[in-house]
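The instructor's notes for this session suggest beginning with a concrete chain rather than abstract definitions. Hand out the sequence below and ask the class to guess, before any prediction is shown, which regions might be ordered.
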Amino acid sequence: MFKEGMLALVGQGFIETIYMTVISTALAYIIGLPLGLVLVVTDKDGIHPIPWLNSLLGMIINFFRSIPFLILLIALMPFTKMVVGTVIGSKAIVGLWIAAAPFIARMVESSLKEVEIGVVEAAQSMGASPFQIMTKVLLPEAKPSLLVGAAISITTILGYSAMAGIVGAGGLGAIAINYGYYRKQSDIMYVMVILMAIIVLVFQELGMRISKHTDRRL
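After discussion, reveal the predicted structure:
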């Protein structure tokens, strides 16, 4: 475990895990955040109800969420290779953020629905447009909850990145599977588990601290 070559591999795996998790989360939010906003705005009780669009998006999101992550990852391998040119290593994160985007959309939807209806109605009475309500009311008011959701999302995606090691992705998960499980080196597996747990705790704590700092109710 403590040989120079293995330590270098673990260091590389640590960097790859952080890279895969952070980049996948950012890309997933680029898709998930607008989807969550649209779900809230077009809801029957939203500021601009569009029932057919809300139902369609809801069905698509639920469809992707219902597919087990590993099966979705395997199914997306041809698309992943077409986009990044490979299905192995830390670059092959296409399936990771596509799988995470529907989860994040629901997290965003839940956070936005926590905003008090009175605040939205006050903005509407002053003539604010739906876009202004989204950007100046819903998102700012839901910021603490959105940040908590982001902390939960990033730790969930970290777990996804570990599972992706089964199909050739990089990171600590791949080391735990290839060396800890397949080669039956249990000490390596336990160390990888501890390292991933530490990363989760750090991300979770940072998210909670930032959320509390931005919460005007505290």
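Then share the key points. The two ends are 46 Å apart (CA to CA). The longest helix spans residues 4-41.
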